[in-house]
Every structure is written in structure tokens, then in C-alpha cells.
Amino acid sequence: MNKFLVYTIPIIGMFILAQIGFAALTVGGSGTGPIISVEPPFQTVSKGENFTVEIYIDPAGNKTAGAAYLLYFDNTLLNATSLTPGSFFNGYDTLSVGEGINNTAGWIDYGEYITGGGWVTGSGTFTTITFQAIGERGISELRFDKEWTQLSDLNGSNEISNVSINNGTVEIVAPPGGIFDTKAPDRPYPSIFGVHNGTITPNRRIEVNRIYTYACPGTGGHTESVRIWGNGVNAHANWSGYAGDWHNLTFNTSFTLEPGKEYNYTIHTGSYPQIIHHPGEYNATGGKIICDEFIDANGKKYEGWIPAFRLWKKEG
Questions:
Q1: Least CB-packed of 71, 168, 204, 276 within 10 Å?
Q2: Is 24 in the same domain as 168?
Q3: Which domain, by its residues, includes 44?
Q4: pTM over 0.70
């Protein structure tokens, strides 16, 4: 596990001691201080599906030269397949420590520290983790170990305290009628909220009562309201604020999208949702989607700005 003061001293000696500052962490803080988060905080996936989460850091202006985490997951439901450093320490020489992925134990242990002097104060993605859903259905928490999840200052002489940690959750579902999922794009920027209008054409029968919106890391990107209609369907859903599972909206009625039929959608977004920049038809899981028009919050019009979302059905 990520016990840096134990297993790095024989190798790197006092250098690492000079780099590490132990962070005092709190769960679910006010959000005004430093934050380490799993992004997105909630996902629904199906068995066999590969998906990613980002470990996102906002140091809230604190001079930060090191970061580390120990993240637990349910290894009966998920299998971690890759761990990739992000852009948080871009521009600096760094040293990576930690034992990495341990699927047998169900945890991921990673740390990274600036070695040549310097620090960062801005937010960014620390690492990207790819998982595969191996269980039929169930819920796995992506939970930080408070003791070994930490930020350090530029020389380790002062602790970066009052760091909030935000865990994540992944639910494996087995939708009876499949899903329609654009997935999260590799390049979700530029992003801005507004109104998306377009069409969906499923390639399979899809039963729906919920919509999940992919948010840009570190933001509150969400769907404010949505309407899907055509071929006997007329369903809508409205957002009720940042409470509970706010990435998912529940439609006023359950409905079925039939293969080969075209359905209209209007999606009003808020904050910074992930956007797929693709003109014309886009191949999603479960069919094709087109964005005919996107009007952003400033009144500018675009074509091919597809909101990243998933249509699915939750039982019960």
C-alpha cells in the first residue's frame, strides 16, 4: 500500500522526506479548500464494459509539489486495467511512487512528486484509471483511504491541511432493453451550457426511464431538462439540484425506443457537460445521434455539438 515513509526511504532517502507533506483530510467538505475527487462521482455501466474515471485535484491555490492516493474498489465487480498519469504536474520532472494496481486486493496505490523544484497551484487531472466491469450487477464504491490520500507542499515543511476527499460510485446494471450511450469523449472541450436539439435513431430496442449526463472533470455539468419525443414517445425530465444522484434524471414515464425509428430530443444543460464535437451522425452504443443545432448560453449557434449522455432503465 501507499506507505511512502516506509518503502521509499531505503531507495530515495531524505529526498522523499523533503517532498512529502502529510495532508489532513475531511470527507465531503465545504468545497472551498483543496479537493481530491473521483470524476465522475457516479457512473452506470454494463458487464464487460470498459470505462474510465479521473482522479482530479483542485489545490485551491496552495503550492503543491506532491500528491498520492490509495483507492479501494470491489474486485468482484471491477477489474482495473490501466493507470495513466494526468496533466496535473505538466512541465515538471516528477518521481512516481506506489504499488499501482492490485486487482487481487482491490486497490490502486499511486503517488507523484516534483523532483527539480517548483509547484503547481491550479487544478487538473492527476491520473486516469480504466476499469472493466466484470460483475453481472452491483454497486462498487471507489473509496479513498483517508490516511494515505494526501497533498504535500513544495518542501514538506508545512502540511496542506483541510483537504476534502470526494469518493465515487459505479453501478453495474443489466438493462432489459439495452442502453443508448454516447460515452465520454476523449476531447470534451470546449464546453458551455445551452440547448441541444437533434435526433436519435436506435439500432436495438431500448427501455428507458433515466438519463445520465457526463460532466467535465471538476465541474457540476448536468442536464437541466430533457424532452424526447416522436413515434408515440413523449417523455420529459427536470433537474432538482445538487442533491443525491444529481447526474441522473428520472423521466416522468418509462418508454421504449424502437430500432430503426427516429426520435427527437431537446436537452437543456447546466454548468459544463462533456460535449462531443462531431458533425453529422455519431455512432453511439445502441444507435446513432445527430445534433442539428446547439444554442449556447451566449446565444451563439453551432452544429455537431452533441451532449454526452446515457439513456437507460433502472429497475425498481
A1: 204
A2: yes
A3: 4-172
A4: no
Please tell me whether residues 186 and 262 are part of one structural domain.
yes
Of 172, 201, 225, the residue at which a domain comes to its end is 172
If one compares 123 and 137, the residue with the highest pLDDT of the two is 123
> What pLDDT shows up at residue 173?
81
Mean per-residue pLDDT, 122-148: 93
Residues 200 and 52 in one domain: no
How many folded domains does the chain comprise? 2
Same domain membership, residue 198 and residue 306: yes
Q: Using alpha carbons only, what angle is made at residue 213 by residues 172 and 270, rounded to the nearest 5 degrees?
A: 155
Can you spell out the DSSP letters for the chain?
Answer: ---HHHHSHHHHTHHHHHH--PPPEEES--SSS-EEEEESSEEEE-TT-EEEEEEEEE-TT--B-EEEEEEE--TTTEEEEEEEE-STTTTS-EEEEEEEEETTTTEEEEEEEESSS--B-S-EEEEEEEEEE-SSSEEEEEEE-TTT-EEE-SSSSSB---EEEE-EEEEE---TT--EE----S---S---EEEEEEEEESS-EEEEEEEEPBPTTS--EEEEEEEEETTEEEEEE---SSSSTTEEEEEEEEEEPTT--EEEEEEEES-B-EEE--S-EEEBTEEEEEEEEEETTS-EESSEEEPEEEE----
19 pLDDT above the threshold of 90:
no
CATH number at residue 307: 2.60.120
- Predicted local confidence at residue 17, as pLDDT: 29
Answer yes or no: do 219 and 159 share one domain: no
Residues 265-280, mean pLDDT to the nearest whole number = 96
